[in-house]
Amino acid sequence: MADPIIQRLEAIIAERRSASSDSSYVAKLSARGRARIAQKIGEEGVETVIAAIKDDGPGVISESADLIFHLLVLLADMGLTWDQLLAELDAREGTSGIAEKASRPKE
Ligand SMILES: N=c1c2ncn([C@@H]3O[C@H](COP(=O)(O)OP(=O)(O)OP(=O)(O)O)[C@@H](O)[C@H]3O)c2ncn1[C@@H]1O[C@H](COP(=O)(O)O)[C@@H](O)[C@H]1O
Q1: Residues 6 or more apart from 59 whose CB is under 8 A from it?
Q2: Which among 30, 39, 40, 71 is least surrounded, fewest beta carbons within 10 Å?
Q3: What are the pLDDT digits (tens) for 85-95?
């Protein structure tokens, strides 16, 4: 079960997706389409990497929060949930990382 803050954010994002783009960042970003949402995840990921390389702990926390927020916006756009993501992690628990990689579908 998702953490309460994640549950609240999922509910807020679901509600804000259909708000006015003038008053809501979620609505504005969602209106720009899935490719733009996905691009934001890439941008926030790069900003997290840069903060990590600079050994900037508060920066990593802040950029990671942006990253998770934008991931939630993407999941909502695709009709997916954080609980599904947690279930995937849960299914991997206790397996070796090497074995897990070998069991993944080939890309
Ligand atoms: N957690 C967040 C959150 N984290 C980051 N952001 C926004 O994400 C953006 C990231 O900054 P960037 O500089 O990369 O992007 P930008 O220049 O603003 O926008 P782009 O044109 O580049 O896409 C900023 O505008 C932040 O305000 C967030 N916006 C909203 N939320 C949550 O979503 C809720 C609903 O927000 P609204 O949709 O605005 O009502 C809020 O109450 C918050 O709880």
Answers
A1: 50, 51
A2: 39
A3: 999 999 998 88
Is ligand 1 within 6 A of the CB of residue 16?
yes
Residue 73 burial (C-beta neighbours within 10 Å; 0-12, 13-18, 19+) = buried
- Alpha-carbon distance values, 49 to 54, 66, 72 (Å): 9, 13, 19
Question: Which CATH superfamily includes the segment(s) 4-81?
Answer: MazG-like (1.10.287.1080)
d(CA 29, CA 74): 10
Run of H or E residues at 57: helix 57-77
Specify the pLDDT at position 100. Answer: 67
Pocket of ligand 1 contains residue 24 by CB under 6 Å: yes
